[in-house]
Design a protein that fits this description.
Layout lengths: L12 E5 L5 H9 L3 E6 L23 H6 L4 E4 L5 H12 L3 E4 L5 H4 L4 H7 L4 E6 L14 H7 L20 H24 L4 E5 H9 L24 H5 L2 E3 L4 E4 L4 H10 L14 H6 L1 H12 L4 H11 L3 E4 L2 H6 L1 H5 L3 E6 L3 E6 L23 H6 L6 H9 L4
Parallel strand pairs: 1-2, 1-4, 2-3, 4-5, 5-6
Antiparallel strand pairs: 7-8, 8-9, 10-11
Length: 405
């Protein structure tokens, strides 16, 4: 575990009332140093049951999804639907800087815990709601899901095999995209509060933010359908593969982003300046799209002469983005991954010691990383309720018996 250092958001407190839609949002805030308190019902957050599980042993403390997205947070249990639970929650709100929630529109207000009520307790509170379709408009009460959000973002068309229907991506890309936009909004609101002293309400719609967060960085799936000894697949008909093609090389696959004439010229240099690729019409972006099938067939003759790293390094030298596409083990053992210290050691009371992905960025001057594992269910009840709110251990026992915590 990293030694204790100040982060960009150290000193801020965030209350986390999120499901999948906002888990990555509060994780980013926690990684930047905020004191994020994960508030779960006494039965536990539903994401604790999301597979896969550490060691393939299903358990509420072993979900890899939960362990990753809730690292760096403290955790308490609290039932917001009973009077004692509401009372305790209001005490938490009084000392919080940020509240992030993902309940259906109107739910917290129906409990007397909507923004209009909470800002009376804490006028400086920044409250962010992440919902499928936002707080207003004709779709606010529609149900949604990860795959629905991805499809409605109009970016799923770039993902899938050429001869089949569009397909979903692994994980929760639409929800994570919404989390990213919400986190940026929260940091901006904190900055604004520094001069105004006032909080504000942030309404984040997954439907509106998923495209902004996803396009165009999906990796097309057709490229992985290669068996040793079989001929390479034909080019995909989807536009995503035409613009950001994936090509086989000696030891794997690469993805190329050559959009401008300068980038195309650089790619031709990387491949040894073959005469057939120096034809002037290939420098035109839309000509390459219109003739993507022919170009794909031509490119195979040259990309397969090099390894992934050779092409990536040549691309770096010439100024054209070329990225190796690794499997998990390849990414973990990659020299760049190791040099960045991307994977860090974490020790969890139920899982033991393991390596976890750190933040995908480095900050200069302040710490950003993992300082604590994801909380076990109710792990910090006593720490927060007794040491910070002044309740006694007898009070906690009564609250447990009444179902408040």
């Amino acid at each position: 575990m990293a030694e204790q250092q100040e982060g960009t958001l150290s000193g801020y407190r965030v209350l986390d009332l999120v499901d999948k839609k906002g888990a990555y949002c509060t994780k980013m805030l926690a990684d930047l140093g905020a004191d994020v308190i994960k508030v779960e019902g006494p039965e536990g957050d539903p994401t604790r049951s999301v597979p896969p599980f550490a060691g393939d042993v299903p358990h509420q403390e072993r979900s890899l999804y939960f362990l990753y997205r809730h690292a760096n947070k403290r955790g308490v249990t609290l039932n917001l639907e009973v009077p004692d639970g509401k009372s305790i929650f209001k005490k938490l709100v009084a000392s919080a800087d940020v509240l992030v929630e993902t309940y259906p529109p109107g739910y917290l207000a129906s409990l007397g815990l909507g923004y209009e009520e909470l800002k009376k307790i804490n006028p400086a509170l920044i409250m962010a709601s992440i919902t499928e379709f936002g707080q207003g408009g004709p779709y606010r009460d529609w149900k949604g899901s990860e795959i629905v959000s991805y499809a409605l973002s109009n970016t799923m068309i770039t993902s899938g095999f050429a001869d089949g229907a569009p397909i979903n991506l692994p994980g929760t890309p639409s929800y994570d995209a919404a989390s990213l936009i919400a986190a940026i909004s929260i940091v901006t609101a904190l900055y604004m509060r520094g001069s105004s002293g006032k909080g504000q309400y942030i309404d984040t719609s997954v439907h509106e933010t998923s495209r902004l967060g996803l396009y165009p960085w999906m990796v097309t799936m057709y490229s992985y359908n290669i068996n040793p000894g079989s001929p390479p697949p034909g080019p995909e008909g989807r536009l995503g593969a035409a613009i950001y093609p994936v090509y086989p090389c000696k030891d794997g696959m690469i993805r190329v982003v050559a959009l401008t004439p300068r980038q195309w010229d650089a790619l031709v240099k990387v491949l040894g300046e073959p005469e057939v690729l120096r034809l002037p019409e290939w420098r035109e972006f839309f000509y390459r799209i219109a003739n993507a099938n022919d170009l794909y067939a031509l490119m195979l003759e040259f990309t397969t002469k090099y390894t992934m790293l050779e092409l990536a390094e040549r691309g770096r030298q010439e100024g054209v983005p070329i990225a190796p596409i690794y499997d998990v083990s390849g990414f973990v053992s990659n020299p760049h991954t190791k040099a960045r210290g991307f994977f860090v050691d974490v020790e969890h009371p139920a899982v033991g010691k393991y390596k976890a992905p750190g933040p995908p960025y480095k900050w200069k001057g302040t710490y950003c990383g993992i300082k604590r594992p994801a909380p076990c269910l109710g792990q910090h009840n006593e720490e927060i309720y007794c040491e910070e709110l002044g309740l006694s251990r007898d009070d906690l026992a009564i609250l447990r018996n009444t179902g408040a915590i």
